[in-house]
Design goal:
The complex is a heterodimer of chains A (255) and B (551). Chain A is an alpha/beta fold and 255 residues long. Chain A has helices at residues 53-61, 109-119, 124-137, 153-165, 183-200, 211-217, 235-240, 245-252, and strands at residues 15-24, 27-37, 42-46, 68-73, 76-80, 85-86, 94-97, 171-175, 203-208, 220-225, 228-233. In chain A, the strands form 2 sheets. Chain A has a 6-stranded mixed β-sheet with strand order 7-8-9-3-10-11, sandwiched between helices. A 5-stranded antiparallel β-sheet of chain A has the order 2-1-4-5-6, covered by helices on one side. The longest helix of chain A has 18 residues, at 183-200. Chain A starts with 14 loop residues before the first strand and ends with a helix. Chain B is built from 23 helices and 2 strands. In chain B, strands 1-2 form a two-stranded antiparallel sheet. The longest helix of chain B has 35 residues, at 2-36. Classes of the chains: A alpha/beta (255), B mainly alpha (551). At the A-B interface, strand 7, helix 2 and helix 4 of A face helix 8 and helix 9 of B.
Chain lengths: 255, 551
């Protein structure tokens, strides 16, 4: 049975992953991944490239499906391989910011941010208020009529963020959002994203290979290597009591 | 040392530029000059005379009707197929892609031969089956039909390529915004690939306006003329025909170049940053309940475009007695031996074509690679000029290039190449140099400069670096470029028909004469030969470049 029904309870926004496995043929990229992200929490997936962190994030979004396991948003099962339950990405109400930003080049800033609301057929007045609010939240006021190629990388980043936030998502997924920015801007955006998250209290899953980003922004960090969770803990716990040599050295390379 | 390297490169570049200018550009400029100057004084009288002739106007009108209709017809097939194969979850998309790319590498006049067999009013197979003269291929619609069934491949490949290069995260972002896969297609995918489709449509327009083989075989028997066939007939006719042909050529060239410039302008203006990269992920649209109807439509379409024409040619070539039907006793390969080994002019033509194709492909690929290197890797002044010079003859209709060469190299300006194999070699080379240039250019840009710099730091000279690092890395592109030129030269008709002499027949011209005048069955044999050679060449490219090039 394929469940394509709407999600009923919108409030609950914790994310649960149970024994998630993803394999391409014999190549297992994520194995036995179990995690509960609490409502309003900021959790980072940290690890070297190819460790399976982005794949895991994409399974939460619904853009990819696990080989086995179960994913819940609040109390709703969005994906359960054994029951063949799958809610497609467009029905999940999840905001996502891509590494390449994916700000549509043929639309203005305003049109980009308004798009999710237009899909939902939100009424004109409300749409305008919400779009302008989202744009001002990411501090892009007065740039509404610009096209993406007239914006800097950092500004495009903010458009992507506003577009993800405008629909009041249950969860915000960020896939290496700062990796294409220069060092100074990266530092600024780190603070800004963190403040924005506290302000609107959205649940965030943040994928990064940068230890500093993970350590400074997260409530909890999931350290991954070769598709397997190495350790889950607060930044302090990880630094004080790394469970193995990989976690210790991966975090140490920052300082 | 540095100065020496510089001067060597500069010497190559400047002599190549001169060569391309002399053989590629100068003949075209000469055409324009000849059309505007009578007895050394400027006048538009030739154009007035030209436009007062009803036949010429008719040809101009037909050319425009043909080009516009072919674009519409080809877009319908090309975009639909492109989307189905590039973006839907169609099973076996790669196989369909190879199949529907076939018309891209086979000359459209092969299609004309097939559809004449199928739909000529007297004894076309379809009319025979229907028992009435339902279809008459010898019409404008016939020309449009045959060309559309080949040239759709331009738009099809443009669509598929654009879809492949489109960063999947644009579409994924729309899905995360709540859009269904159909909404994503209309709101995001289509607007983003529109410029590429448009460029493909312009190429199709120009190709249809420049086409010679199909209108010559289908239109001329019924006195339907387009500009290309008109120019050809004028050159074959009475005194003064060359002057009219020259002026008409300039008109045709202007149409082609204006459209290409317009397309170029739009492309540059609309240069949106389409961050490529992770295009391995493709947002597939589910066909769902449409899967089976679509599959059946694709099978039918492939029968219409590929199976029917090619089996018609095969069966025509195998019949012992023309018109005695397709019973087994009437089929035999004996004609193949007779045509390929028994007819002297065919033997000579095959030998000439292969010789010319190998020579042209080898020389242009060498020159093209060298020039691409200079263009991409050096900062020599004027390095971009060569690109313009090389692409101009390519953009210009073949009939016009050939006429230019006749006028320039019949002795009046130093060289007399009339009726020689060399003039064919020159024509093919200037026409296809830009293929080699573009293929190597694209491949070179993929190779990081540091690979070469590491070579220099290891003490290698420029020639050594070229030999041991660049050429090995460029090998797939060089191989592909070679075949990309070899294939069209082998079956070239449009320029050859104006340039061949008594001793310099090529496959295309012999085939054309057999088809038009005496022996359509022998023409079918040659057509089969071309199809087989082109398919083998394509498989070879795919195999040699491990699937990177070829269809």
């Amino acid at each position: 049975m394929v469940n394509k029904g709407k999600i009923r309870v919108l409030k609950m926004s914790d994310v649960t992953l149970e024994h998630i496995k993803k394999a391409y043929g014999d190549n297992v990229v994520v194995n036995d991944f179990t995690l509960k992200v609490k409502e309003g929490e900021f959790v980072s997936f940290l690890g070297p490239s190819g460790c399976g962190k982005t794949t895991t994030l994409r399974m939460v979004s619904g853009l990819e499906q696990p080989t086995s396991g179960k994913i819940l948003l609040g109390n709703d099962v969005v994906n359960d391989v054994s029951l063949r339950t799958f809610i497609p990405p467009e029905k999940r109400l999840i905001g996502m910011v891509f590494q390449s930003y994916a700000v549509w080049p043929h639309m203005t800033v305003y049109q980009n941010v308004a798009y999710p609301l237009k899909i939902k057929k939100v009424k004109k007045d409300e749409l305008k208020t919400r779009v302008l609010k989202a744009i001002s939240q990411v501090r892009l006021n007065n740039l509404e009529k610009r096209y993406p190629h007239q914006l800097s990388g950092g500004q495009q980043q903010r458009v992507a963020l506003a577009r993800a936030l405008v629909m009041k998502p249950r969860v915000l997924l960020l896939d290496e959002p700062l990796s294409n920015l220069d060092a100074k801007l990266r530092e600024e955006m780190r603070v800004e994203i963190r403040e924005l998250q506290r302000e609107i209290k959205v649940t965030v899953i943040y994928v990064t290979h940068d230890q500093i980003e993970a350590l400074t922004m997260s409530n909890r960090i999931v350290v991954m290597d070769k598709g397997i969770i190495q350790q889950i803990g607060t930044p302090e716990e990880l630094q004080k009591k790394p469970t193995n040599e990989f976690v210790r050295s991966f975090l140490a390379s920052s300082s | 040392m540095i100065l020496k390297i510089f001067s060597l490169k500069f010497l190559i570049l400047s002599s190549a530029t001169l060569l391309v200018f002399y053989f590629g550009l100068f003949p075209l400029l000469l055409l324009i000059w000849k059309s505007l100057f009578v007895a050394d004084s400027f006048t538009l009288s030739r154009y007035y005379t030209l436009l007062s002739d009803r036949g010429n106007l008719e040809a101009l009108k037909n050319t425009l009707i043909l080009a516009v209709s072919v674009v519409l017809f080809a877009s319908l097939i090309g975009i639909t197929l492109g989307w189905l194969i590039g973006r839907s979850d169609l099973k076996g998309a790669n196989k369909w892609r190879s199949l529907f790319s076939l018309p891209y590498i086979i000359p459209p006049y092969i299609g004309a031969i097939a559809w004449i067999e199928l739909m000529n009013p007297k004894m076309g197979y379809i009319n025979q089956i229907l028992g009435a003269k339902v279809f008459n291929i010898y019409s404008m619609i016939g020309i449009i039909w045959v060309e559309g069934l080949f040239l759709y491949s331009f738009i099809f490949l443009a669509t598929v390529t654009a879809l492949e290069q489109l960063d999947a995260s644009y579409e994924e972002a729309a899905r995360m915004s709540g859009a269904s896969s159909w909404r994503v297609f209309w709101d995001i995918t289509l607007p983003l690939i529109k410029p590429s489709i448009f460029a493909g449509a312009i190429l199709t327009f120009v190709a249809a306006a420049a086409s010679f083989g199909v209108p010559a075989m289908i239109g001329m028997p019924n006195r339907i003329h387009v500009l290309t066939t008109k120019i050809y007939s004028l050159t074959q006719s009475y005194e003064g025909g060359i002057e009219s042909a020259t002026t008409l050529s300039v008109v045709l060239m202007a149409i082609a170049l204006l459209f290409l410039l317009f397309s170029d302008f739009l492309q540059k203006r609309k240069r949106v940053t389409m961050v490529g990269g992770k295009s391995s992920r493709i947002a597939k649209v589910e066909l769902g309940k449409w899967r089976i109807p679509i599959f059946i439509s694709l099978v039918l379409l492939s029968i219409l475009i590929i199976v029917l024409p090619f089996s018609t040619i095969l069966l025509t070539s195998l019949q012992k007695t023309y018109g005695n039907g397709f019973v087994l006793e009437n089929l035999s390969f004996s004609r193949y031996f007779h045509v390929l080994f028994g007819m002297n002019k065919v033997k000579t033509a095959i030998f000439n074509s292969i010789q010319l194709a190998v020579l042209t492909a080898t020389c242009t690929v060498m020159l093209g690679t060298l020039l691409a290197y200079i263009k991409v890797r050096t900062k020599i002044y004027g390095r971009n000029l060569i690109d313009t010079f090389a692409s101009l003859p390519y953009a210009t209709p073949g009939v016009v290039v050939a006429l230019g060469l006749i006028i320039a190299f019949s002795g009046g300006w130093g060289l007399n190449l009339y009726n020689t194999l060399i003039i064919l070699f020159v024509a093919y080379s200037v026409k296809y140099l830009s293929f080699a240039l573009r293929t190597s250019n694209a491949a070179l840009q993929q190779i990081d400069v540091s690979l070469e710099e590491a070579g220099f730091m290891s003490g290698a000279s420029w020639l050594q670096v070229l030999n041991t690092i660049i050429i090995p890395l460029l090998k797939p592109a060089i191989v592909a470029g070679w075949f990309l030129i070899f294939m069209p030269v082998l079956s070239e008709l449009t320029m050859s028909i104006l340039l061949f002499g008594p001793k310099t027949q090529v496959i295309g011209t012999v085939l054309y004469n057999l088809q038009s005048y005496d022996d359509p069955q022998a023409a079918a044999v040659l057509a089969m030969l071309i199809v087989v050679l082109v398919v083998i060449a394509n498989i070879t490219v795919k195999w040699l470049t491990k699937g990177k090039y070829g269809f």
